[in-house]
Please model this.
Amino acid sequence: MTEPHLEDENVVRISIALDDPVGSFEHERVWAEPLGNDLYCIRNTPWFVYGVNFMDIVRARSTEGDGNLEFREVVVPSKHETLRLYFTPVNEGGPSQETIETILAAVVQLGAWYEGYKPRFYAIDIPAITDPVRLFAYLGGLVEEGTLQWESGNAPPP
Model:
């Protein structure tokens, strides 16, 4: 189940430069709701950028008068947290797509939402109202089994 955030909404795209480009990606574009005065509310879970989460209020400005919006800063953090899950490939002992779907259903049952980027890569949004202890314990067990790896979207790995 993905986040219920874009249906019938007035949203725009904001470009965020990546500190460490991912493949050919030097920027990530996120959906955001205009609030006025160069402020926007992020309306999807970021995939690659660190330190920006679903529902954060950010400042963005048009670049060179072309209408494209460029991220400037997080103004009000939302208290949501982003995790990125990388499932081990099947040929390396990883789970089937059916098992991944079961795991993602459990993630939703534990209070989080997800968005899929590729069949084995998912961005997880943990809302501020969710107690993450059970979710982290569940994911920790899957890491120990070699089923997946995860990282926080708040800071890049050392």
Q: What stands out?
A: The chain has two domains: 12-76, 81-152.
